[in-house]
Amino acid sequence: MLSRKKVLVVYDDVSELSQFEFLFGGIDRFGRGSLVIVTTRNKQVLFQCGMNLIYEAKKLNKYESIQLFCQHAFKSNHPIKYQLGLSRMVLSFANGNPLAIKFFGSSLYGKNKNYQESAVKDLKQIPNPDILKLLRSSFDGLNPVEKDIFLDIACFFKGEDRDFVTRIMEACYPSAYSRIENLIDKSLIYISQNKIEMHDIWQHVGRSIVHYESPSKPETRSRLWIPEEIYDVLTKNNGTETITGIVLDMSKLAKLELEPVAFMKMRKLRILKFYHSCGRTLLLKGLLSLPDDLRYLCWEGYPLKTLPSTFHPRYLVELDMSCSHVEQLWEGKQVLFFLLI
């Protein structure tokens, strides 16, 4: 019946082509002059639907963000000084995302000043679980490899060179290049000056997903990046096979003294990076082993003259031992099929 009529169709939040086809069969089913508007978080869906004009929604600017937040938090378009200060703190986290701005604003409406200030201060440390639940649907729609790459970027590689990240991801996962492209199409990451970027709120979503893998036991999470937690795991020799990546900014710690068996239990560790670490990491008793599954090893200021003799880095694609004491990488010969840098 619709094929004989000129119609306006708005189809919101389409995630798969099959959803569109199930209802309409295709855009060629409508009468001449019809207008079909489809909204989606996946650009590929628009190509598959045969859309001939694609508009990418931009994030709200500063003025629009403040206005939207104040409308929901204070029911006002003219915030007073105190309210404006709260607005700026929220917007530094929401980063122009209207859904997040509306949610944060509504959650503060009707609350007293002390509550509002406390809630806003907690945003970056403990993101609101309700907003994370709303945004997580995009993550849940990813396939397993895309989920892993998304979490690696959120925890370790935001702001890093695209070619570098792709090289590491290709060593860790099958078809990583196309998976990264899919994350771009789904607006979960973006490229700026050849660097892989991610909005702050999506980074918080990713890191929160990893945190809630095991809230009270970081040693059983998949990825570690918080210096204090890494310090506890390594100094107590609590590492497990669950951990696949550790990136440690040593400028946040005075020093890190490790036992020889610090990495013994972390057999599935693929990413290990210590930076700003010259003179801060101590291996006074040596180091017995490193995980053979490592794809990326960066240890600035590595304090020993050689890597462990039991380390067989057959999957390693990048090795960075800047400012280290290394005189010889290892004794004997190593077969390094994949090492590029």
UniProtKB/TrEMBL annotation:
**An annotated Gene Ontology molecular function:** ADP binding
Q: Does the keyword Cytoplasm apply?
A: no
Q: Which UniProt keywords apply?
A: Leucine-rich repeat, Repeat
Where the record annotates domain Disease resistance protein Roq1-like winged-helix, the positions are 146-212
Give every NB-ARC domain span: 1-77
GO biological processes: defense response
Record's protein name: Uncharacterized protein
Q: Which organism is it from?
A: Gossypium mustelinum
The upper taxonomy is: Eukaryota, Viridiplantae, Streptophyta, Embryophyta, Tracheophyta
